[in-house]
Amino acid sequence: MPKSFSRVNRCDERMLAGQRWIVMMQGLVSVSILAVLALSVGSGLSFAGDVQGEWRIHWPNGTVNAMTLQGQDALSGVYVDDSGNSCRISGKGGSESLSFRIQCQTWRADCMGRQSLANVIEGSFQTDVGVSGKYRMVRGNGGGGGGGGGGGGGIPTSIFKQ
């Protein structure tokens, strides 16, 4: 066999080996992507707009209050103020954002937020008594209520003093 043919065959073999490696890596990347997607859906790390259930809302003054949301597009629910009183929640939700109103006996708060993960909502609020700021909601029932003193219900109590 002439030398030129053996040199060509070795080049072809190297090229085929490189192509096989590329195909194998593409398959590995595809399988990895599918595995990550399956794990994220299975573990609740999706960005879906499911906000139903129990939440804890963290206010900028350090208080944490329990609330429960129901519905998807039309939201309703109950917020528990610092004194243990139930306040009405109404609003609307979307695939990534939501807006809702907490209506308590002595104040109301209009809240807008975005669901960053399935278990976290972050946003801003404005009350009818002149208080505004940022809030963070975390899914779960770990406590809630308490922390701000009477009358405020999660909004800084100093604004209620005359």
Main attributes of the structure:
disordered C terminus; eight-stranded antiparallel beta barrel; alpha+beta; single chain; 162 residues; 1 helix
Explained architecture:
With 162 residues, this protein is of the alpha+beta class. It is 25% helix and 38% strand. Strands 1-2-3-4-5-6-7-8 form an 8-stranded antiparallel barrel.
Topology:
Blueprint: H1 3-42, E1 53-58, E2 64-70, E3 74-80, E4 86-93, E5 97-103, E6 108-117, E7 120-127, E8 132-139
Antiparallel strand pairs: 1-2, 1-8, 2-3, 3-4, 4-5, 5-6, 6-7, 7-8
Secondary structure: helix percent: 10-25%
Overall structural class, as computed from helix and strand content, comes to alpha+beta
- Average pLDDT confidence is 77
How would you spell out the order of helices and strands?
HEEEEEEEE
- Sheet of most strands: 8 strands, antiparallel, barrel
Strand tally is 8
Radius of gyration: 27 Å
Shape: rod-shaped
State the separation between the terminal residues, measured CA to CA: 104 Å
Strand content: 35-45%
Low-confidence stretches: 40-47, 143-153, 156-162
- Helical segment tally? 1
Strand order of the largest sheet: 1-2-3-4-5-6-7-8
